[in-house]
């Protein structure tokens, strides 16, 4: 027996908002530029299968995941779109990818050899994208390694469909690091072309770069956070990307208590009451280790300082207004509270 219907907290996801956000990117990319919807980590907590379907309907051509098992789950759900594993794949993961027609990121000679040997054992064709480290300093070939690696390296079971890099700092108002990464990447792809090595999909943009630097779109943009309606660009306003936040968290106040002045509150005694106030307890804080990462991150970052739900009139922008209007506690208990997310037409 389960008791899943007993909780007052739920995250609601608007697939229409996701589709609208994908549509914004579609409209801002040139026709030939492909759009990859990044649905790793259960679509950043929004539901991978549903998000993938909504994104594809709205114009995404590819899906990006971090691990082979995420790709396999999408295949089992009947999703046939091209999928690329963006992270590292072990030989077991490579086998799963090949069996399910999923493209693999190859970021070293050793990984290439692993893919060749699994492909040969299974007699299956492998599609790979080479990852180049132009500044993130994590996975990837160094730019100067790629040309000697590719030159003359053909194998009947291996197709190099793509070559890509990942920006480390594309949301920084100062674009110089990103421009440096882009220059290193383009100089590499130009050298490949000059040597007659044609790799069809060259890509480098994440959400932030795709929104800010149209000149960097190349053959594909990989969109994650912005597809879910969260702008990676704090303080940079881009009128052509009026994103819609896709997730809202709804909960109900579970308890209200009066607390004296100068009393520490909660784990780690991290807050001290500045005066006598009323404190409301919200259920998500009680289960903080179990909520999805997307929710947890946003709760920690925003819930106590964020814009209040105007109907509950609970929180002000400052910590010392974390209380309720005096004398109203009984009527407030059980009221709807929205720690984040825009109001939609969902039933309450
Ligand atoms: C290689 C790669 N490209 C693109 C993305 C999407 O990034 P963002 O969510 O900033 O759009 C990710 C996400 O982690 C990624 O790993």
How would you characterize the overall build of this protein?
This protein is of the alpha/beta class. The protein has 2 domains: 13-228, Alanine racemase (TIM Barrel); 247-340, no CATH class. It has helices at 15-28, 40-45, 48-57, 68-76, 91-99, 109-122, 143-150, 176-194, 207-212, 283-286, 293-302, 329-332; strands at residues 10-13, 34-38, 62-65, 83-85, 103-106, 126-132, 158-165, 201-205, 220-223, 247-252, 255-259, 264-265, 271-272, 277-281, 336-340. An 8-stranded parallel β-barrel has the order 2-3-4-5-6-7-8-9, surrounded by 6 helices. A 3-stranded antiparallel sheet has the order 1-10-15, with helices on one face. It has a two-stranded antiparallel sheet with strand order 11-14. Helix 4 (68-76) packs parallel to helix 5 (91-99) and helix 7 packs parallel to helix 8. It is elongated, with a radius of gyration of 24 Å.
Which labels suit this protein?
348 residues, alpha/beta, TIM Barrel, 8-stranded parallel barrel, 15 strands, elongated, binds pyridoxal-5'-phosphate
Helix content: 25-40%
Query: Ends: how far apart?
Result: 26 Å
| Main CATH class of the largest domain | Alpha Beta
Major beta sheet, strand line-up: 2-3-4-5-6-7-8-9
* Overall geometry: elongated
What is the annotated CATH architecture of the largest domain? Alpha-Beta Barrel
* Helix run count: 12
Rounded to an integer, what's the Rg over CA atoms?
A: 24 Å
Number of structural domains:
2
What does the average pLDDT come to?
85
What do we call the CATH homologous superfamily of the largest domain? Alanine racemase
Question: Which ligands does the model contain, each kind named once?
Answer: pyridoxal-5'-phosphate
The helix-strand sequence is EHEHHEHEHEHEHEHEHEEEEEEHHHE
Uncertain parts: 286-292, 300-331
The biggest sheet, with number of strands, parallel, antiparallel or mixed sense and barrel status, is: 8 strands, parallel, barrel
The total of beta strands comes to: 15
Strand content: 15-25%
Q: Any idea of the CATH topology of the largest domain?
A: TIM Barrel
* SS content category: alpha/beta
């Amino acid at each position: 027996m389960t008791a899943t219907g007993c909780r007052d907290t739920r995250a609601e996801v608007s697939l229409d908002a996701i589709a609208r956000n994908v549509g914004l990117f579609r409209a801002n990319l040139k026709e030939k530029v492909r759009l990859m919807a990044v649905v790793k980590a259960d679509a950043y907590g929004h539901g991978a299968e549903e998000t993938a379907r909504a994104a594809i309907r709205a114009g995404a051509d590819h899906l990006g995941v971090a691990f082979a098992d995420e790709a396999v789950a999408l295949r089992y759900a009947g999703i046939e779109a091209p999928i690329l594993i963006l992270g590292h794949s072990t030989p077991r993961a490579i086998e799963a990818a090949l069996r399910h027609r999923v493209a693999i990121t190859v970021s070293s000679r050793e990984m290439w050899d692993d893919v060749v040997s699994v492909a040969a054992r299974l007699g299956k064709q492998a599609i790979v994208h080479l990852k180049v480290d132009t500044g993130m300093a994590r996975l990837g070939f160094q730019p100067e390694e790629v040309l000697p690696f590719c030159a003359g390296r053909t194998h009947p079971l291996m197709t190099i469909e793509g070559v890509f890099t990942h920006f480390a700092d594309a949301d920084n108002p100062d674009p110089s690091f990103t421009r440096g990464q882009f220059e290193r990447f383009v100089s590499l792809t130009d050298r490949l072309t000059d040597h007659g090595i044609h790799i069809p999909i060259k890509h480098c943009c994440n959400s932030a770069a795709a929104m800010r630097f149209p000149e960097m779109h190349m053959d594909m943009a990989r969109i994650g956070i912005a597809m879910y309606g969260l702008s990676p660009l704090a303080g940079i306003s881009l009128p052509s990307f009026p994103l819609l936040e896709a997730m809202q968290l709804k909960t109900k106040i579970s308890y209200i208590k009066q607390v004296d002045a100068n009393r520490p509150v909660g784990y780690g005694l991290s807050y001290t009451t500045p005066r006598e106030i009323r404190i409301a307890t919200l259920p998500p804080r009680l289960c903080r280790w179990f909520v999805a990462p997307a929710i947890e991150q946003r709760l920690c970052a925003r819930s106590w300082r964020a814009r209040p739900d105007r109907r509950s009139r609970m929180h002000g922008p400052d910590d010392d207004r974390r209380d309720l209007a005096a004398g109203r506690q009984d009527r407030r208990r059980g009221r709807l509270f929205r720690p984040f997310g825009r109001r939609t037409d969902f039933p309450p």
